[in-house]
Design a protein that fits this description.
two-stranded parallel ribbon, four-stranded antiparallel beta sheet, 69% helix, 11% strand
Length: 489
């Protein structure tokens, strides 16, 4: 009797706590998980990161402008010495002066200059010119100087490298978005699974409570009949054991329900102390889609296949980038010196131009990179084929599991009707002493077993549907099945 009171008290207290519980539907649970789940927030940040990377890649189309400045110290002044030119000028001029003197003497009727006279005049003229012509030594740049330079480059042709890099960045963003969608699908499926666990345990507890009430009634009947001397004591004791088993089963399932609620709140991103009320029922609702339809949906909607396709597209862009190494790179450049007072007479204040370059040989590295990318493409092709095969296999398994669960559910209805009628007849016969307590308990347990098995069949049915929609990449489609108009229990 104490055990019965304890179980009823626990049930009563739970019902009081649920008065203040927040009722929640499956859709609300999914929406809460999508809003609160940390993993989804993590992948959302990754999407934002990739969006910035796309914007960054667009900057490759624009010119690059840099401002550099600094202080420089050389070991000595940078000078230009033209002394050889000065000496050549003096030599030529002195020689000309000597020849003019010689011509002048001849015109005056005298004789030409002797070698000694020529040498004397040459030396005199050279010394005189050396004193008049300054030294040809110029300081081009002082030992200490400042520089502030504005430089810019604008790519004109890079062999398609910039365009392909931009495409890769855009596909990285698309991959991040598909990974986010994949994560949302997984969280949605997890919430559905946990929600189904809660509903299942609530339905099982309802069956256990009915069984407990039946066992309680049977124990009371057995006690009364035993006291009247109609049955033996062992039959009354057997009813006590059956009642204790029913209490233990109910207590175990209440604990399982508590764990299921904790798992549901965790997947929803809710606090463990929050009290939620799931008021739902496992009832049969059919789906009309065929296995082929599910496969077609998976090929078009499954994020994993979309990611693989984006990876294949990236391989093409990477191939273009590596192929660009065989083509010339042409760009426009310009430079402007802001502190021109420190420039030498040989340095321009500004300069612009077009420059190009092409690699002629680098040890066949570029060729091997192209071959490497081709093999990566083949690898992804095989990965795509293998993934599709596994998706087909997974859909086949879950679809057949769904059909098997549906078949078990439908066939158990007859078993339940028979077990219910058998319990009614056995209980009536027990009142007159025509059957034993064990017969009544067995009949009650058979009915309980069939009722719970039927609930588990529905649970497995919806669990398979959840897996099917997760595999197709559309787990929220489960809501369309779950919220359909009721057909029959």
């Amino acid at each position: 009797m104490k055990n019965v009171i304890s179980v009823l008290l626990v049930t009563f207290l739970c019902s009081i706590s649920y008065v203040h519980a927040q009722p929640i539907t499956l859709k609300q649970a999914i929406d809460a998980a999508i809003s609160n789940n940390d993993k989804i927030k993590q992948y959302s940040e990754k999407v934002e990161q990739k969006k910035k990377a796309v914007t960054e890649s667009k900057g490759n189309y624009l010119p690059s402008i840099n401002l550099t400045g600094g202080f420089h110290h050389m070991d000595e002044n940078l000078s230009m010495d033209l002394e050889p030119v000065r000496q050549a000028m003096i030599k030529i001029q002195a020689g000309n002066q000597v020849e003019f003197a010689n011509v002048y003497n001849l015109l005056q009727g005298g004789s030409g200059l002797t070698p000694q006279q020529r040498a004397s005049l040459y030396s005199s003229y050279s010394n005189n010119l050396g004193n008049q012509i300054p030294l040809f030594v110029e300081t081009i740049k002082k030992q200490d100087y400042w520089s502030t330079t504005l430089t810019g480059t604008q790519p004109l042709f890079m062999g398609g490298k910039i365009i392909s890099a931009s495409h890769i960045a855009e596909k990285e963003k698309a991959i991040a978005e598909e990974e986010l969608e994949k994560t949302k699908n997984e969280i949605t499926s997890e919430v559905i699974s946990n929600y189904l666990n809660v509903v299942l345990m609530q339905n099982v507890i309802a069956v256990r409570q009915n069984v407990l009430a039946g066992m309680q009634q049977h124990r009371n009947d057995a006690k009364r009949i035993y006291e009247e001397g109609i049955i033996a004591k062992n039959q009354f004791l057997r009813s006590e054991v059956a009642l204790a088993d029913a209490e233990r089963n109910l207590s175990d399932d209440n604990n399982k329900l508590s764990l299921a609620l904790i798992a549901l709140k965790n997947s929803m991103g809710r606090n463990m102390n929050d009290v939620i009320d799931v008021n739902d029922e496992l009832v049969y609702k059919s789906i009309s889609d065929s296995l082929n339809n599910f496969k077609e949906d998976a090929y078009t909607s499954q994020p994993i296949l979309k990611i693989i396709q984006l990876k294949k597209d990236q391989i093409s862009d990477k191939f273009n980038i590596e192929r660009s190494e065989f083509l010339p790179k042409i760009y426009f450049f310009g430079k402007y010196e802001l502190m021109d007072k420190y420039l030498s007479i040989l340095e321009p204040k500004w300069v612009v131009g077009i420059q190009g370059s092409i690699n002629l040989f680098n040890g066949f590295k570029d060729k091997n990179k192209l071959q490497e990318i081709k093999h990566q493409g083949n690898e992804i092709d095989y990965l795509e084929s293998d993934t599709k095969n596994k998706i087909d296999l997974l859909l086949e398994k879950n679809y057949r599991d769904m059909l098997n669960s549906k078949y078990r559910f439908e066939k158990l209805e007859a078993n339940i009707n028979l077990a219910d009628e058998n319990l009614r007849l056995t209980s009536g016969r027990f009142q007159t002493g025509m059957s034993t307590s064990l017969d009544v308990i067995d009949a009650q347990l058979v009915l309980e077993k069939n009722l719970i098995e039927r609930k588990f069949s529905l649970f497995e049915y919806y669990k398979s549907i959840n897996e099917i929609y997760l595999t197709t990449g559309n787990p929220r489609e489960f809501l369309n099945v779950w919220n359909k108009q009721l057909q029959y229990e």
